[in-house]
Amino acid sequence: MPEKDYEFFDHTADIGIRAQGTTLAELFAQMAQGLTELLAEDTVLTPQQMRSVRLTALDAPSLLLAWLQELLFWFSTERFLPVEYALDEVTETSLRGTVRGDTFDPARHAQGREVKAITRHLLEVKQHNGRWHGQVIVDI
Amino acid sequence: MKERAWTGSLEKIDDYRWRIPQSYSSGMRVPGIIFSDEKLLRDIKEDQSLQQVANVAHLPGIVKASMAMPDIHWGYGAPIGGVAAFDMKEGIVSPGMVGYDQNCGVRLVRTDLTEEEVQPKLRTLIASLFNDIPCGVGMSGEIRVSRKDADRVMTEGSRWVIGKGYGVAEDAAHTESQGCLDDADPSQVSDRAFKRGSDQLGTLGSGNHFLEVQVVDTVFDETAANVLGLHEGQVTVMVHSGSRGFGYQICDDYLEVTERAMAKYGISVPDRQLACAPIDSEEGRSYLGAMRCAANYAWSNRQCLMHLARMTFERVFGKSWETLGMRLIYDVAHNIAKFEKHRVNGDERMVCVHRKGATRAFPPGHPEIPEVYRSIGQPVIIPGDMGRNSYVLVGTQQAMEESFGSSCHGAGRVMSRSEAVRRAAGRSIEGELERQGIIVMGRGRKGVAEEQPSAYKDVNDVVQVVHNAGLAKRVVRMRPLGVIKG
Fold first, then answer.
1. Does B43 contact chain A (CB < 8 Å)?
2. Which CA distances in Å does B184 have to B73, B95, B246, B287?
3. Mean pLDDT estimate for chain A
4. Hey, are the CB atoms on B252 and A13 less than 8 Å from each other?
5. What gap in Å lies between CA B213 and CA B133, rounded to an integer?
6. Cβ burial B339-369 (10 Å sphere, 16+ → b, else e)
7. Chain A to chain B Cβ contacts (< 8 Å)
8. Over residues B25-41, mean pLDDT
């Protein structure tokens, strides 16, 4: 699991995630960790399953949206939470790689919040001083 | 990011009505009308909800005014607590003006139990409800529907789950729209939405969803209370939940569809999140067809939750739910878009009313109200936040004339989640509420802290405005005895 480089911020009734990384792949991994923490708090997860992911989008913010929506979908339908990321190819318009993760068990794991959706509000991906920064608000 | 406070013009019409004039912004097609008093207005001006009211007024085909209820607060595109109606030919439909949780709503169940009868078993009752009703993150429901049956949930709403044994016909009769919107179109629902909804029927969810055991502590209108079957000291059960992942996914899907549609139809909006499509368009019809599926799923969900609660009461009190008098009083939606007939400039016409964090409040005599309630008006169920009062009101002719038959839905947040968690540090919210005689059982560690009473506007203030403005009249007030939340 990558070292934490994300934080949460308030946004009216909901919560925002801000993250950064040296590469887009790192940024996307950090955002995913943020989402995971919202869902399962500080639960210790072990990578037991692997999934592949392949997404395309019009631009980097849309790609970030698609990435987080995919993770939320995996969690909603199969309780899958990501732990380790091998995102081989991440450009501003496409993402390809594999994710290793765990199955959330409400009986054993800490319950976070129900994330209803990844919103488009203040959605941002930009490069600044050689680092990638991202921001997203989730609907709780 | 700090939201800027409102600095635009706001004209006072009377003590409970305020207007944002069309002159405020050149694109406004109608004025903004805010139902509020001075006290609530102070909070309302702090976030950008009034700007959002003005933004909604830009939308094509909007009729009469962009309206706001006293519990209004900032939302995605359209404010929560907003009401707007659109012409069927010139107007638009907007997923952001319904919200992610389509047909989030609330139902109230009466019982013949008194507080004295319930108190000795209260902890057992709340613990049993907490055990029996799936709530919280990652919890599945027991009630599974096959893909084929899912189509029937979507097109028949609560009638279908009732037919499967999760209630009785009277339950549907006492639900807004009989628990089913016509013209739901499952073919407009994505595979993703089906998958997200497949195991969530009969689940409460999390956040501000809850199931509460209450007692009626004040009767304002004895005649209306008698018609509703309510009296002081009586125990009631309130269920607040919506369309779960099924609805959230549908909203997500159609935010994308409508955003693409805007360029196609040459619609420009002051805020991207007010993405919309003409009602009379392929995209508009698709969204409405899918939204109705979500609405029907939500009514089915609340029907299942009520059924589970009835079963729990049966086990705890050792009597059938019928013997306990656990009849459904009414169920209302507070995030929805409906085709309704309203009088506009003297003529009766069909309009598409969007209510996002607002409740229908039809007047006495309206044919859509169950016959048994027709003399008093449609019951309007207003949930308070955790630890605070809830209300039953009835709709009025004034609401019909002024707000497309709409009223408030509850109370909005005034404190951010992290602020609420900070303020809860070192405290046990559950402990504090228990000292007030309220038992709270919640799943998420931060959930209860985030939902603490002080995080919300006072629902008593909100209901007072709605009552004084004449949009809905107070009938009874309840206070909580115990609550379960995810």
1. no
2. 30, 15, 14, 10
3. 95
4. no
5. 14
6. ebebeeeeeeeebbbbbbbbbbbbbbebeeb
7. 103
8. 96
Residues B235 and B115 sit within 8 Å (Cβ to Cβ): yes
Residue of chain B whose alpha carbon sits nearest to that of A107: B139
User: What ipTM goes with this model?
Assistant: 0.95
Residue B1's pLDDT band, with cuts at 50, 70 and 90, is very low
- Residues 177 to 236 of B: which have CB under 8 A from any A CB? 192, 195-196, 198, 205-207
Residues of A in contact with B418 (CB under 8 A): 8-10, 15
Residue B433's identity, in one-letter code, is L
pLDDT interval class at B2 (50, 70, 90): very low
Sign of CA dihedral B399, B402, B405, B407: negative
What's the pLDDT at B4? 67
Contact B444 A117 (CB under 8 A): no
* Band (B3; pLDDT cuts 50, 70, 90): low
B90 backbone dihedrals φ, ψ, rounded to 5°: -90, -10
Q: How many CB atoms lie within 10 A of CB B19?
A: 16
Residue B46 has pLDDT above 90, yes or no: no
Q: What percent of chain B has pLDDT over 70?
A: 99
User: β-strand B439-442 against B472-485: which pairing, if any?
Assistant: parallel
**What are the φ and ψ backbone dihedral angles of B42, each rounded to 5 degrees?**
-60, -45
Please tell me the predicted confidence (pLDDT) of residue B307.
Answer: 98
B47, B101, B137: residue with CB nearest A12: B47
> CA B6 from chain center: how many Å?
26
**Whether residue B308 has pLDDT greater than 50:** yes
Element (H, E) at B32: strand B32-35
Whole-angstrom distance, CA of residue B152 vs CA of residue B163: 11
CB contact under 8 A, B137 and A106: yes
**What is the pTM (predicted TM-score) of this model?**
0.97
Residues of B known to be catalytic: 409
Chain centroid to Cα B189, Å, comes to: 22
Chain B contact present for A100, CB below 8 A = no
**How far is the C-alpha of B60 from the C-alpha of B49, rounded, in Å?**
20
In this prediction, residues B185-192 reach a mean pLDDT of 97
Contact B137 A11 (CB under 8 A): no
Cβ neighbours of A111 in B, within 8 Å: 136-138, 206, 443-445, 447, 486
The CA-to-CA distance between both ends of chain B, in Å, stands at 28
Assess A140–B contact: CB distance below 8 Å, yes or no. yes
The mean per-residue pLDDT over the stretch B183-202 comes to 95
Q: Which helix (H) or strand (E) holds B295?
A: helix B282-317
d(CA B77, nearest CA chain A) in Å: 9
